[in-house]
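Lab meeting notes turned into a lecture example. A postdoc, R.K., suggested we walk through two folding results consecutively so the class can see how the record format repeats. The first protein's sequence and structure tokens come next.
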Amino acid sequence: MLRKILGSPKLNEGHKESTAAEERWAEVSGGKLRYLVQGSGAPLLLLHGIVASSFSFRLVSPELSRELRLFLPDMRVAGADASLKATASRLLELLDQEGIEAADVLGSSHGGAVAMEMSAMAPERIRRLILVSPANPFARGYHGVVNFYLSLSGGIVIRLAPFAPIPIWEYAMRRMCGRASRLATDIGFGYRQPLRERGMTAHIRSSLQTFIAEIEALRAKLPDLSKIATLLIWGDRDPVVELDSGRQLQQALGAEMIVIPGIGHLPYEESPEEFSRIVLKYLRIGPSGDRVIG
């Protein structure tokens, strides 16, 4: 396991210090998995969306790491099986290598589906789930997007995406959000750059091949997943995974649900302070019923 210390974020006075993020590499099935480790406390595994990376959580990790030990993997492994099941299996291997018997898991979008697959495979390893507008069996809006990217023209778009100008990336990110004016100025560059690594776009396209079928297969697993304490976080302006599907998922899982007004698909980008507060409060006090932030 290779390790490298990354720069430490600036701290706020009066808070427990946030430690520097440490870069590590784990040998897993199919290759090497890059991940960051930051903070101290109970372990929290944070799983990004399908075209994202650990960069997604840069605005919330300083605050979360004051109370938790964060593990932030870059889930794509070039040349490896890109299915939900294989991805979940690699993350369980990561927990093994870190000596973690059980962890809280936070997953966003595609990462939320991976978190559910992990929970189905090894429920004893998952303490609590936090699912941020996850892809789920009740959602239908994303099907057209997936099918487009599996088409010939969509495949060209994916291959060219790492070389698209930053303003195009910024435009694409704004389309997923409700409070676009709040987005950090580094968002376009930060989401684009990891895709320039060899094999990353091929991995994304491979994951899309079975994505819809694998999400549908989660439906039969929901009764067992309902035994795990779960918090759902959704923005009421999410244009990617419709809020109505979240309501149905909440019922199926018996989960808590927090709906944030004015927010789209990326609450940790759009309102990082509020997102961090929600996550820390839930992990401090545990499940307590449906809540809506107004």
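The second example is placed directly after the first for contrast:
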Amino acid sequence: MLAVPIATETVNRDSSQAPLPFIERLCFERSAVPEMVNNTKIFKMAFARVYPLYIAKVERKGRTRQEVDAVIHWLTGYDDESLERHISEQTDFETFFARAPRMNPNASKITGVICGHRIEEIEHTLMRQIRYLDKLVDELAKGRAMDKILRS
């Protein structure tokens, strides 16, 4: 078995298995590492590192960067300029959500399972906010209508 930190391309898996895509590695590692240790790594991870992966995921399914930006705007209240600033400054997830102008009050309507955990049962506020964003991107990639994604 390999035991490698999140920042690398492999995780705690049999070396004969292919590497996991980044987003799936976070899910796999979340179950393989004690919760607070893993949360700290995710919280300190640069949003700019994950953002292009969100874009790639939805573009593979025929959606656009503008739609990803729209769900981020809806969830956090950031506008295009402030979102780009956080990306260029390599802001970590913790700071990204702490400085969000306005978390959408309808975010609590985002329910379901992400990485094997029910979003509505995640107690840590920051982890729940990160998973809200993951869930919105997943719904976008699955082709769900934008008005349903944005809980309108």
